[in-house]
Amino acid sequence: MTPSRTLVVVAHPDVEKSRITAHLAAAAKDVENVTVHDLSATYPDRRVDAIREQGLLREHDTIVFQFPWHWYSVPGVLKEWMDQVLTYGFAYGSGGDALHGKRLRLAISTGGPESSYAPSGNNRFTMAELLRPMEATAHLCGLELEEPLVLHSAARVTDEELAAHATRYRELLSAVPATAGR
Question: For 161-180, what is each residue's pLDDT tens digit?
Fold first, then answer.
């Protein structure tokens, strides 16, 4: 059995100015068999090296997209990365089975409270409903979508709440099952 390898794809336009994303990325850095990959730092000009990124995806068994929820979607840097990396023939379509059987987890922070993500809340939809495009993406790419880890009201969490969330994040990253023969 080979240990499972996890790639954490951090997608924030400026991690240095982000309390939540920076804290979670730092918490993940020393977890065994975890690679933390900051898209904005790697590609400040947004010119993604798709071949390199596809290689990283091939080398890992679990992919984590870590990002703040922006306008009911992923931040632009992650969308651009997805457009350039998850291509026909690699991630889907004829011969596009490079990600089949791998796992995808979403680590998301939101500005609003959990109650705002309900039919009666400000956003009118649950997070599960709003994440349907990510579910469809995982399905198309043959990825097993795991339960998302969501931190609501991110700007208002206390240092203690953030530390507890980071601990939970590290536990999830550490608990990734091993894979045979990868």
Answer: 999 999 999 999 997 555 44
Q: Which residue has the tokens 């991110």?
A: 154
Both structure tokens of 149: 């880890």
Reported as half-sphere exposure (CB side, CA atoms, 13 A), residue 161 has a value of: 12
Query: Could you tell me if 15 and 42 are in contact, meaning their C-beta atoms sit under 8 angstroms apart?
Result: no
pTM of the model: 0.94
Strand partners, 38: 10
Cα separation of 46 and 20, whole Å?
Answer: 22
How distant is the alpha carbon of residue 72 from its chain centre?
Answer: 15
Distance CA 89, CA 84 (A): 12
Which residues, 6 or more positions from 93, have their beta carbon under 8 angstroms from its beta carbon? none
Using only the alpha carbons of the chain, give its radius of gyration.
16
Hey, how many other C-beta atoms are within 10 angstroms of the C-beta on 158? 8
Burial degree of 66 (CB within 10 A; 0-12, 13-18, 19+)? buried
How many Å apart are CA 38 and CA 111, to the nearest integer? 21
Q: Nearest CA to 116 among 107, 125, 129? A: 125
